[in-house]
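Follow-up to my post from last week.
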Amino acid sequence: MLAYYLGLALRSLKRNPVLTGLMVLAIALGIGASMTTLTVLYVLSGDPLPGRSADIYYPQIDPRDMNGYQPGGEPADQVTWIDGMNLLRAHRADRQALMTGGSVPIQPTQANLDAFYADARYTTADFFPMFEVPFEYGTAWTAADDEHRARVAVISRKLNDKLFGGQDSVGRTININDADLRIIGVLDAWRPDPHFYDLYQGTYGEQEDVFVPLSTSRDLKLAHNGSTDCWGNGAPSQDKLEQAPCTWLQFWVQLDTPAQATAYKAFLVHYSQEQKTLGRFQRPPNVRLRDVMQWLDFRKAVPDDVRLQTWLAFGFLLVCLVNTVGLMLAKFLRRSGEIGVRRALGAARRAVFEQLLVEAGLVGVAGGVGGLLLAQLGLWLVRRQPADYAKLAYLDPVMLLVTFALAIGATLVAGLLPAWRACRVTPALQLKS
Amino acid sequence: MDILPILATLRRHKVILWLLMLEIALSCAIVCNGVFLIVQRVQHMGMPSGVAEHELVQIQQAPIAVPSDRYARAQEDLATLRQVPGVQAVGMTNQVPFGGFSSNGNVMLSPTQPHRTLSAAEYFGENLIQTFGLRLLSGRTFEPDDYVNADTVIKSLADGSGKDFPMPTIISSALAERLWPGQSPLGKMFWLAPKANFRVVGVVATLARANAYKTTTAQYSLIAPLRMGADKDQNYLIRTQPRDRQRVMVAAVAALKRADPTRVITHARTYDEIRNDYFKDDHAMAGMLVSVILAVLLVTGLGIVGLASFWVAQRRKQIGIRRALGATRADILRYFQTENFLIVTLGIMAGMALAYGLSLWLMLHYELPRLPLFYLPAGALALWAIGQMAVLGPALRAAAVPPVVATRSV
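User reply:
Got it. Predicted complex:
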């Protein structure tokens, strides 16, 4: 029966190519626009640590003075050196890492390469196992290296390609800020998007090329980049940041069970209380413990413009669908005579309804194909834009499926009203004329 | 033209009428708000910076080996740049308007104030007024004795001695007006930290922040006479003739490289590039909005064409009868045009309410002002025009129906 309906639908669609074309075009435009923006939104709201993000938390405490204090406000976004070190040494989580970003001068030994600056991350050892960073060669450093301010570095695959032609460079040296560091690891391709662990360095399409132990970076006076928030008479002088009343480090912990998370939060409150008793903190304890996705949501990692564009595109899709409902109604009602004959010959209302829905579905499939092509075109246009997230805009299999489901589903919904109206024509009235 | 027969006919096609109205109402809401969003972006992109935009070049350099005296190195570099032919003025700054990288401070009107009065951009550096080309409204510019090395100030703040303070400062007129409305700001004092107070010695007309995203606070800026070292985050500024910019930039980079071959030039660009770069997202968003509005109008127009064609085809016989009874072609044409005008008008009435509701929703979720009411009639005009254009083809076809159709049976 379906084959018969399909045949009927094809014949009917061919009879009014202009009307059919208009319907398919409207669906394709609507689907194309909404899938383009939805794909961008989907890519940008992606999970940077699939399967693990719920166990990784970003503790926040409030070390600032009473200036600007408002009860119920948010605690500081980052931590000071003293608090970061205290929390790190407390070892209350399964894993914990204290880190910050920077940019370092690299002087290649190769004569054909000019000196250049590379983005760097200064962190403690747990960074690599906690975020499950993949290694191509070598390994990460250990807590002992952190302790001894070891002159070691881990570099990205990209930098390894640039400096060593992609060969195993473990054991070789790299000159950073006039100091020789031994390379102990080369990362495999790794690019968590969004760059969740430090959103101050740009949210998308960011990846450091050099990783150095935090203690070593302070020893070598490697410049810190990103947000530095000071209070009191504090001023961000690069070499005195350890003592300054400034927050400039990110602290991440891994807590594998909800019970541990609850306990850790209690520990943060306890720590704040203790620091207040000691006179270091002035504000009452105010802590947060957000997991990765909560943190990204709180920091509004996805740009407002992208959300606005998605709403706009779906508004457009709505216009296209209303348009299609109207056109389909016109098309079905025009065939009242034909439907009347079918009804008179014994077709049930249900059968006519089904037949018309098959026709609507066919328009949906055609619109879906058109929409897919338009979405690819749209994403290509997005990728040509200057925004830092633009390069990530690609359609994946999930979104491909969503495109077709949305196109066919939307068209079927759009077809319901016209098909219902059309199958209720009175056969006798149509046969009379 | 008699409207009553049209209304009587429309009453017999309620579903299609409702659909058309809905489509027009949705289009009206999207188009009104979309155009408003575009205007917002365009206004944002036109925000004044206060600097001589077409005459400026920014160079950022980073030393590979840190010089022993960063302040002496900065002075040498400035001297080197002054030698470059075509250079009119040379300065140094920690940030540039719309440069993205920003340095801001909390301004307080007393040292013990519990909450900041506002946040303002802190411009540090040398010879900024002249190089930027800022317009001094009152007071004076900085004199050579005003300048202090940044490290000295940081140290005196950290040890709490408060030496070097109060420091002279030049502020933007927007900041002056916000801090001391209606009064002369000259000689007035404000604090950036309990020990860091500043006395206003001059006011410039306009100086935008490096991260100016809100129009209300975009012009809150202050300049402090701090001498900065030749660090990688500092900017050398060069002012020159607009036509000389490229040549001067190349020559300046070459001169800096000659002075220290190992240094890395991280940025060398004209101010026009800085502005374009800062507003590129707004530009892209405005482009996207224009395409969506055009697409909405196109789809709505095509929808009207489709439904009008259907109606014309359905009513061929009636049109023929009317023609046979003496109606002219112009009468038939006018009938369909009036009918379209009525439907679009009904749609627009619903659309205006919808547009307003959508605007309220956008205000709730995004930081947007309320839709000004004059956008509503503007959107209405656009939809009336689209409707009349779309219906013209089918209406002409209807007018071409010969009276003889009346005598034929289907």
